[in-house]
Fold:
Amino acid sequence: MAGKRKGTYKITNWRKYNESLVQRGSITFWFSEETIKKWHHENAKSKVGHPFVYSDTAIECLLVLRELFQLPYRQTEGLGQSLAELMEVSIDIPDYTSLAKRASEMGILLDVRKHTGAIDVVVDSTGLKVFGEGEWKMRKHGKTKRRTWRKLHLAVNPDTHEIVAETMTENSCDDAGQTDGLLYQIKAPVDKLYGDGAYDQRKVYKILKKRGIKAIIPPRRNAKISRHGNLRGRKLSRDVAIREIRRRGRRQWKERVGYHRRSLSETAMYRMKCCFGDHLKNRLIPNQKIETRLRSKILNKFNHLGLPLFEWN
Structure:
């Protein structure tokens, strides 16, 4: 018997989506007139010491260009000077040391659009290299001590593909331990949280219960029921999932609860690595955190410019 043929799809808004892809590389979109107007710092009276010359908007603009075109700090300074000259704008460009110092102290907003009502989020993590050998050398000669990476944790809205929260940690931190920090960043109320088996921990369920969030997390294969049927009290959602998986199977449980939406977090990871690579350019953790924050914000900007609309056949 022939297998079931997979469906195909086509992009229905290709012209508009193509324009958005072109706009992503437009210098005037990122280095806009509005940004130039806010270039110099207001130098608030509360500032102690030497006043700032450049505003946070100016520093963020150059750091965004640095991430877009994968440049070192010195080349970013040169790019800024060239853009100011070509656009005939009389502004000074901060030197590369000022960019590095200011970057570690900035607060970057993810530029998430406002939503009415509750949203769902999918969470996951991925690794970003800091330094060390490439894959070919590691396979041939093995890894050495000078090889490390960071973990990037993302919370994605599956309906809009926006990154609504992110955090970067050392590779020793577990995924479940970042759940509370990610949820704290989200301004909108959360209805459901989708995560893989790494989030199947009591502390995660405790956090979600406190916030009134429904957990869509597959119990581990050796999971045990915590509160049996003869005990008083409300049934635990994890116990309900374990019983259903035992009765109907893990696959049917995933289909019923819509667990497939969790894969959209992996899509966000894939898009980020395609756009910015799998390495971090900075060596200091504060600068690395700003680097991943900026990458997340840029991806949200890409989403706002336009996403493809599919029609399944």
The chain has a mean pLDDT of 85. The longest strand covers residues 119-131. The CA atoms of residues 7 and 313 lie 6 Å apart.
